[in-house]
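Posted in: Structural Biology > Protein-Ligand Complexes

Title: Requesting predicted complex, pyridoxal-5'-phosphate in pocket

I'd be grateful if someone could produce the 3D structure tokens for the following input. Sequence and ligand are given below.
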Amino acid sequence: MKPATRMERIGTETAFEAAARARALEATGRDVIHLEIGEPDFDTPRNVSEAASRALLEAGETHYTAATGIAPLREAIVADVARWKGISTTPDQVVVTPGAKPIMFFTMLALVNEGDEVIYPNPGFPIYESMARYVGGTPVAAPLREANDFRMDVEEVASLITDRTKLLVINSPHNPTGSILTEADIRRLAELAVERDLVVLADEIYGRLQYSGEPLSIATLPGMADRTITLDGFSKTYAMTGWRLGYGIVPEWLVHHFSRLVINSVSCTNAFAQFGAVEALTGPQDDADAMRDEFIARRALMVDGLNAIPGVTCVMPHGAFYTFPNVSSFGRSSAEIADHLLYDAGVCGLAGTAFGKHGEGYLRFSYANSRENLRAALERVGESLAKLERTGELVGSS
Ligand code: PLP
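-- Reply #1 --
Done. Output follows.
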């Protein structure tokens, strides 16, 4: 018996595998500080959990909902994107999904034909490349370089566009580098999309966690509303990763296809969770704001701490909750260094190459962990890398 050949084309998100290896190490009695997974370490705001709990226990919201989401949530999303992104849309164009990830999958399934090219940031969220390839498309990497503040080089993107290019994926603030696209970048990318007739998938999941400048949604620029799928969700802004709640703002001509994909795959998103999401958007924002403030403080702690380690340099990220330190001076691969730090120092980070080949030379450390743990992790990383320099001995899993 054999799986379908298309399964050879699917990738994965290494963070989950790294976390599993870290847990296996913990099971042997080792202490591990987790800086690998991209999820806030805060609890979901209590008012949100209470709203979902009322929907579950009191209102009996335990049945299928409309495929694209309950009306109050789609209305709340319309108001929220108007407020935070300046996007003017209607509830009919909102598609609620279990997490934001399905929006990536649905975008590729609905748009990308065999051989169509998809330009995406590399390093970048690994699912863009994986899904583009899985549906038979050709992922085309737009390299993000430290020398360009890990922003997409828009003129390079222009040079990568061919007659087969169908889709451009952008992500600002960016995972894993924490970079942001400038207003000029976004304006130029929009011009290119219009000139070359591209659809844009704008992954704005970290939009509320941008720490400098004003976020600009590409969907608001001339000619873009009808060619942009804006992806966002609840996982990061409201510490709701396990709830599985996200959404897309989808052009009118595509929304019917997205709805079909929802019906074919999941029918709808969890009913009572959607009521929690309404509260997240319409209730007090104090917890989300406090989380953001804490991330800003931790960002400084991490960046300063990493730059104080001989051989490591780290640029200041402008959003999300990741640092992307350069460890190329050690002359080892990112994967070797990430392994060394897990098994020698008990600090679990990710190799930059978990986000594509242009991540070589870097590690990703999430700062979604307590300041105390971040300080301890920095100390351990510093000692372990100093030992590596001294002895030349890499510690691995065996
Ligand atoms: N987009 C980016 C850039 C991410 O980093 C993530 C999660 O790590 C997602 C989208 C998906 O988020 P979720 O499916 O949890 O809503």
